[in-house]
C-alpha cells in the first residue's frame, strides 16, 4: 500500500488545539452539527448539556454551540446548562432550543408559537455582519420549532426575522454570543455552512487545524508507541471501517499485524474471495480465515425471531474469533473500528451525553476474558471522515465507498428462518441489485442498496406454467448520517432491469417489490 504525500510529508499540526464543543440538549441533529463544524477543519466534539463551566475551562474550547432539543425552556424539568458558561468569554452560538435558552437566561420571553414552523422558511436579514456576513438580504432556512422568542432583553439585538418569527437570529450587544431559531447544520439550509464557518473561523478565530493527513500521521505514531513490539489482532470484514483500521495498523507496525476474517456463511455473493483478494493486494501480513458456515447455520436452524438471530450470530462470532485469536502467538492488542457516533450513542465518552441510545458491538462488546488491550484508532472520527482517511491512506475507492453491510449479514435480510437454500436465492438477487446500481453509476450517489427475501410466496406465470414462488423486495436509501434516511428515487428503467433480471435469473423468485419507506418510521434494514 503506497504512502501518500498528505500522510508522509504534510507539516505537523496540533490537530486538537482548536476545539468547539456542542452541548447536547437532546437534538436529533447534534452529531450533524459536529460534522458540519469539522467540515471547516475544526475539531468538534459533543458533550452533555450540564457540563460544568469549570470543566469547559479545562477543555479550553474556541467556541461553544448549544444544540436544539425537544423540550420547552419554560417547563419545570427542561434541561439547562451551567449559567457560568456565559461568563467564560468564549463565543457561544445557540441553535433553536439553544437560542431560546440564551434568551430565557438573560430575561427575554419564550412562548409557544401561534404559528409553528416546520420545514422551509424565508428569512429577512437586517444585520449581515459577523454571524450572517456574506449572506444575501433574504435566504431560505430550515425551521423545526413549536416555541419561539417573543421578546429579547436589552442585552440582545435582532439580526433576522421571518413572516411569523420576529426574532429568527440575535446577538449579544457586548459579547460574542449569538442565537438562531433555524438549523444551519441541515442541507435544507443552503447557506448553513457559511453561517457555521462565520462562527468557527471569523468569530471564534479558528484557523482550521483538523486535517486528516495530520490525524493519520499522529495516529500511526501513537500506535507505534503504544504497541511496541507486540502483535495486534484486527477483525476484518471487508467494510470501510475495518479496512481503514487495518491500513493504519499496517502503516504503523507492518507484519506485527494479524487479521481474522470469520466467514459465517451469511456474507454476500463472492464476498469472502473479494475480501481475501483485496486484503492480499494492499497488505502483506498475516491473514486467518475461519470457515464457520456450518457452525452458524446449525445454530440458526429453526430460529425466526430477529433479535434471537442477532444474539446467536453475535455470540458465535465472539466464540469463533476467540478460538482463532488464541492460536496467534504474542498477540497482546485487539483493534476495533469504533467510531465517534458509537462512543457517543453508547454513553462511553468522558464528557458526552450519559444516556445510552443503543449498544454497539465495538464499544465493550467483546468479552473481557479475551485478555487483549484495545486499540481503537478511529474513535474520534465520523463515518465520512473515515472514508476520507481511507483515501489519504491510499485505499482504492471500491473499498472506501463500499456500502455498509450489517454485522449479522444476510440473516437480517432473509426474513424468517435462515437456511442455505434461502440464502442462495437471496445472494443471487442481492448481487443483481448491486450490479445494476453500479452499472447505472448510482452506487456513489446512493447510501445503501440490497435485496430482502420475504417470507411469503405469490402466484405467478412463467411460460405457460403457474408458479408459486418467493417475493424479493429491493431496498435503496439516501442518507447523510444513517440516523434518518429517504428511499432512493431510482429511474424506472433501473428498477425495471433489476426486476426483470431477478425474475429471469434467480430460480424461485416470481415477484419483485420496491421499498419506499423512510427512516423513521421504518428502519433501513428489515430486521
Characterise this structure.
It is a single chain. The chain has 527 residues and is of the alpha/beta class. The chain has helices spanning 5-8, 30-38, 53-59, 97-105, 192-203, 212-227, 240-253, 271-282, 293-300, 306-325, 340-345, 383-392, 397-400, 420-439, 492-505, and strands spanning 19-24, 43-48, 63-66, 92-95, 109-125, 138-151, 156-161, 169-172, 177-180, 231-235, 257-263, 286-291, 331-335, 373-375, 448-462, 465-478, 486-487, 509-514. The chain starts with a helix and ends in a 13-residue tail after the last strand. Mean pLDDT is 88; it is low at 2-6, 8-12 and 355-364.
Structural shape: globular
Number of strands: 18
Computed CA radius of gyration, to the nearest angstrom: 26 Å
Low-confidence stretches: 2-6, 8-12, 355-364
The major pleated sheet works out as: 9 strands, mixed
Percent range for β-strand residues: 15-25%
Helical proportion, percent range: 25-40%
Give the spatial strand order of the biggest sheet: 2-1-3-4-9-8-7-5-6
By DSSP (H or I, 4+ residues per run), the number of helices equals: 15
Mean pLDDT: 88
What is the terminal-to-terminal distance? Answer: 37 Å
Secondary structure class reads alpha/beta
What's the gist of this structure?
The protein is of the alpha/beta class and 527 residues long.
Please give the structural blueprint.
Blueprint: H1 5-8, E1 19-24, H2 30-38, E2 43-48, H3 53-59, E3 63-66, E4 92-95, H4 97-105, E5 109-125, E6 138-151, E7 156-161, E8 169-172, E9 177-180, H5 192-203, H6 212-227, E10 231-235, H7 240-253, E11 257-263, H8 271-282, E12 286-291, H9 293-300, H10 306-325, E13 331-335, H11 340-345, E14 373-375, H12 383-392, H13 397-400, H14 420-439, E15 448-462, E16 465-478, E17 486-487, H15 492-505, E18 509-514
Parallel strand pairs: 1-2, 1-3, 3-4, 4-9, 10-11, 10-13, 11-12, 13-14, 16-18
Antiparallel strand pairs: 5-6, 5-7, 7-8, 8-9, 15-16, 16-17
Helix pairs in contact: 6-7, 7-12, 9-10, 14-15
Amino acid at each position: 500500500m503506497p504512502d501518500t504525500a498528505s500522510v508522509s510529508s504534510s507539516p505537523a499540526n496540533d490537530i486538537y488545539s482548536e476545539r468547539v464543543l456542542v452541548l447536547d440538549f437532546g437534538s436529533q441533529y447534534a452529531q450533524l452539527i459536529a460534522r458540519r463544524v469539522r467540515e471547516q477543519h475544526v475539531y468538534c466534539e459533543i458533550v452533555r448539556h450540564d457540563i460544568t463551566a469549570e470543566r469547559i475551562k479545562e477543555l479550553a474550547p474556541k467556541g461553544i454551540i448549544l444544540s436544539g432539543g425537544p423540550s420547552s425552556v419554560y417547563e419545570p424539568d427542561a434541561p439547562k446548562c451551567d449559567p457560568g458558561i456565559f461568563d467564560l468569554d468564549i463565543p457561544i452560538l445557540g441553535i433553536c432550543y439553544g437560542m431560546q435558552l440564551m434568551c430565557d437566561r438573560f430575561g427575554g420571553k419564550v412562548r409557544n408559537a401561534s404559528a409553528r414552523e416546520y420545514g422551509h422558511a424565508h428569512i429577512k436579514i437586517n444585520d449581515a455582519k459577523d454571524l450572517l456576513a456574506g449572506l444575501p438580504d433574504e435566504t431560505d432556512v430550515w425551521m423545526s420549532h413549536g416555541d419561539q422568542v417573543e421578546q429579547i432583553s436589552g442585552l440582545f439585538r435582532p439580526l433576522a426575522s421571518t413572516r411569523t418569527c420576529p426574532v429568527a437570529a440575535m446577538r449579544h450587544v457586548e459579547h460574542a454570543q449569538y442565537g438562531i431559531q433555524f438549523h444551519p447544520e441541515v442541507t435544507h439550509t443552503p447557506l448553513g455552512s457559511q453561517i457555521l464557518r462565520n462562527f468557527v473561523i471569523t468569530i471564534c478565530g479558528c484557523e482550521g487545524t483538523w486535517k486528516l493527513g495530520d490525524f493519520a500521521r499522529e495516529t500511526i505514531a501513537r500506535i507505534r508507541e503504544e504497541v511496541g513490539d507486540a502483535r495486534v489482532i484486527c477483525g476484518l470484514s471487508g467494510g470501510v471501517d475495518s479496512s481503514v483500521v487495518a491500513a493504519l495498523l499496517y502503516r504503523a507496525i507492518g507484519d506485527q499485524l494479524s487479521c481474522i476474517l470469520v466467514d459465517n456463511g451469511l456474507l454476500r455473493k463472492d464476498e469472502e474471495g473479494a475480501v481475501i483478494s483485496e486484503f492480499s493486494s494492499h497488505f502483506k501480513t498475516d491473514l486467518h480465515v475461519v470457515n464457520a458456515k456450518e457452525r452458524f447455520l446449525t445454530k440458526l436452524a429453526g430460529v425466526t425471531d430477529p433479535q434471537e438471530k442477532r444474539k446467536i450470530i453475535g455470540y458465535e462470532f465472539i466464540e469463533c474469533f476467540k478460538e482463532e485469536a488464541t492460536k496467534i502467538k504474542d498477540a497482546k492488542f485487539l483493534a476495533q473500528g469504533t467510531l465517534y457516533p458509537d462512543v457517543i450513542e453508547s454513553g462511553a465518552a468522558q464528557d458526552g451525553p450519559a444516556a445510552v441510545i443503543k449498544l454497539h458491538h465495538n464499544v465493550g462488546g467483546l468479552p473481557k476474558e479475551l485478555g487483549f488491550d484495545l486499540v481503537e484508532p478511529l474513535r474520534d472520527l465520523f463515518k465520512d471522515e473515515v472514508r476520507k482517511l481511507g483515501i489519504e491512506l491510499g485505499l482504492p475507492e471500491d473499498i472506501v465507498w463500499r456500502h455498509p453491510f450489517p454485522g449479522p449479514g444476510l440473516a437480517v435480510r432473509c426474513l424468517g428462518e435462515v437456511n442455505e437454500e434461502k440464502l442462495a436465492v437471496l445472494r443471487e438477487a442481492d448481487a443483481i441489485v448491486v450490479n445494476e446500481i453500479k452499472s447505472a453509476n448510482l452506487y456513489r450517489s446512493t447510501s445503501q442498496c440490497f435485496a430482502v427475501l420475504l417470507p411469503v410466496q405469490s402466484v405467478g406465470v412463467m411460460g405457460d406454467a403457474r408458479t408459486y414462488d418467493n417475493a424479493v423486495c429491493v431496498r435503496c436509501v439516501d442518507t447523510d448520517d444513517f440516523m434518518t434516511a429517504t428511499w432512493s428515487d431510482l429511474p424506472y428503467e433501473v428498477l425495471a432491469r433489476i426486476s426483470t433480471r431477478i425474475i429471469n435469473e434467480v430460480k424461485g423468485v416470481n415477484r419483485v417489490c420496491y421499498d419506499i419507506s423512510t427512516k423513521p418510521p421504518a428502519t433501513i434494514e428489515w430486521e
